[in-house]
Amino acid sequence: MRGSQRRTSIMDRIRRDGSVAVGDLARELAVSPATIHRDLRDLATDGLVERVHGGARLQAEPGTRSAWASRRRRNADAKEQIARAALQWIEEGSTVFVDASTTCAALATSLAASSVGSLTLVTNSPVVAAEFDHDGVHLIVTPGEVDQNLRLIGGRWTVEFLASLNFSTSFISAIGITPERGLSTAQRNIADVLTAVRRASDRTVALIDSSKYGTQSLLPIARADELDAVIVDGGLAEREREALRAAGAALEIAGEPAGVSDVPSGSPSPARPRPAASSR
After folding, report:
1. For position 277, what pLDDT does the model report?
2. Complete domains list, the chain, with CATH
């Protein structure tokens, strides 16, 4: 059984019983307890379950709020580094989209502190909508249903609204990235929104901190070679960088100068926008 299928089975069991024990899952799924611990860690990172001693339980609302805040604090320095690098993809007077991930929330924070003069920013993040403050930026929040667990706006209204727009650049994130499968998520509402965004965008830039490398979840978002850039922090190991480049990723390492090796061999250099945003 593949990891994504196993995690789906685990979620089915948790929804049915309310909680699970590592030992029981390991026996039922014929895998090691260490594998179950990794699966539960991934599900907890995605806001789906709450880890407890010896297992996990379905995420409760108060715990979910603290879980989102915990995800925002996790690898905060790396996310800020990625956010500063992503500013170079924002053009004066353009229309951009940022998703509801914690990494894109860091980008919105950097953008609010930048010198950009005129911009339209579209987001499905209630957090960005509440916190963003910049007189030169026209902020548009998507319609739809607010998921309190994941701090996002999604659903059919959101997808239909996004499909009617055009974006110069969209910034997205995910639960993880692998050379073989690209970006993925465990949430259907996230996958549907990001698919609509990619179709409406001239460029799509993935913001992924290095801790997410090697994580693959249930639903695909985009292959590595379908993204105009993948911006990661400097914590990504050299062998992991090479694996992503070999898969076709236009890889950018935040804080490091871009080099010829960052563009997949045999591919044209990506069209870079004229930067308008810089930190104040």
Report:
1. 59
2. 3-59 (1.10.10.10), 76-262 (3.40.50.10470)
Q: Which residues pair with 201 in a beta bridge?
A: 167
pLDDT tens, position by position, 20-59: 899 989 998 999 999 999 999 888 887 788 888 888 887 7
Q: Which are the contacts of 239, defined by CB distance < 8 A and separation ≥ 6?
A: none
Amino acid identity at 8: T
**Spans of the chain, pLDDT less than 70:** 1, 60-68, 258-280
State the CB neighbour count (10 A cutoff) for residue 219: 18
- The predicted model scores a pTM of 0.73
According to DSSP H, which parts of the chain are helical? 3-17, 22-29, 33-45, 61-73, 76-86, 102-112, 126-131, 156-163, 188-199, 238-246
Where does residue 238 fall: left (phi above 0), alpha (psi -120 to 50 degrees), or beta otherwise? Answer: alpha
Within 13 Å of residue 186, how many CA atoms lie on the same side as its CB?
27
CA dist., res. 135 & res. 119, Å (int) = 10
Residue reference for tokens 């994941």: 150
CB distance 88 to 96 below 8 Å: no
User: What pLDDT score was predicted for residue 63?
Assistant: 43
